[in-house]
Amino acid sequence: MKQVSTIDAIRAEVTGLKSQGKTIAFVPTMGALHKGHLSLIRLAKEKADEVVVSIYVNPEQFGPNEDFGSYPRQMEDDLNACEEEGVALVFTPNDKIMYGSGKKYFRIELDELNAHMDGGSRPGFFEGIVLVVNKFFNIVKPDYAVFGQKDIQQFQILSRMVEEFNHDIEMIAGPIARANDGLALSSRNAYLNDHERKAAPGLYRALKYVEKQIRDGVMEPGLLLKHQQDELEAKGFKNDYLNVFSMENMQPVEKLKSGKKYILAGAAYLGKTRLIDNIILDL
Amino acid sequence: MKQVSTIDAIRAEVTGLKSQGKTIAFVPTMGALHKGHLSLIRLAKEKADEVVVSIYVNPEQFGPNEDFGSYPRQMEDDLNACEEEGVALVFTPNDKIMYGSGKKYFRIELDELNAHMDGGSRPGFFEGIVLVVNKFFNIVKPDYAVFGQKDIQQFQILSRMVEEFNHDIEMIAGPIARANDGLALSSRNAYLNDHERKAAPGLYRALKYVEKQIRDGVMEPGLLLKHQQDELEAKGFKNDYLNVFSMENMQPVEKLKSGKKYILAGAAYLGKTRLIDNIILDL
Question: What is the DSSP letter of B272?
Answer without folding.
Answer: T
